[in-house]
Amino acid sequence: MSVDRSDPDVPVIRVGGDLAYTTASPLRTEIDRELLAGPAALVLDFADLQFIDSTGLSIIVHAWREGLRDGVTLRLRAVPRFLETILDMTGVTGLLARSISGDGPVSTEPDGQPTVTA
Q1: Distance between CA atoms of residues 17 and 9, nearest Å
Q2: Residue 14 in 3-state DSSP?
Q3: Where are the beta strands (DSSP E) in 21-99?
Q4: Tell me, what DSSP letter sits at residue 72?
Q5: CA–CA separation, 57 vs 87, rounded Å?
Q6: Per-residue model confidence as pLDDT tens for the chain (118 residues)
């Protein structure tokens, strides 16, 4: 995991390798740290993700929920096909695509991934 803060209003957390029960805690800590700073948006970049389990999935939902509370836009970037499938099958895609008012998707990233006002 690494964080790009070149744009202080939109930090990018790069998630790589396995996001599972034994490795998820540092990501959750970093998400909470970044949200505490009050960015306009937070990007989770999954370009280097190899595997995710239910704990990893819960971290994505946690980021959405905490962002919702703080009015932060959550963006998922470079979502691998296997993660896209898991997000769809579990209903998380629909959850993430809701705006604060629940009216549906806000917009999409250039790669077609949902940009979520959370």
Answers
A1: 26
A2: strand
A3: 41-52, 73-77
A4: P
A5: 8
A6: 889 888 878 999 999 999 999 999 999 999 999 999 999 999 999 999 999 999 999 999 999 999 989 899 899 999 999 999 999 999 998 888 765 444 444 344 545 544 443 3
